[in-house]
Amino acid sequence: MAEMYNPPGLTLPYYFLYYKFPGKMVATSGGGAEIWRFSGETGGWEPRNDIADDILHGTTQEVSVLTPEEFVQRTERARGRYLQGEGPVYALYDTIRALEETADAENRRLTDRERLLVEGLRRRTYVMFETVLQQQGDPAADPTLAA
Q1: Distance between CA atoms of residues 51 and 24, nearest Å
Q2: Which of 26, 34, 111, 133 is most buried (most C-beta within 10 Å)?
Q3: Residue ranges of domains in the chain
């Protein structure tokens, strides 16, 4: 992936939602930047330098800035929604889904305790999923973000 120019004054890494999918702009070793966006097919990261103008100059309808914690939570919400599989990470996604579905069926929000549990589980699944991506060679994987 070709690196792009890193505009002055932009602090990297930069986390965002782009049309409801999480993404990140990260520094490269050469002083430039790369943009990666969540893939709903794999749960990994797709190179997307082509959306740089939208990310840097888009409207709030297109782009929302995220904190690192919000980025982790949004990424795991998307993974839990779009991916299916076997193994420990998917069992945790099922647990989160069950908590949310129970609250929906009871026509209520998650309790504070449930919300904290979901947030903690998502931090854990983020580390688990990103570790596997990193082991598979995904250059944008970063399990340390939620560790």
Answers
A1: 11
A2: 34
A3: 14-146
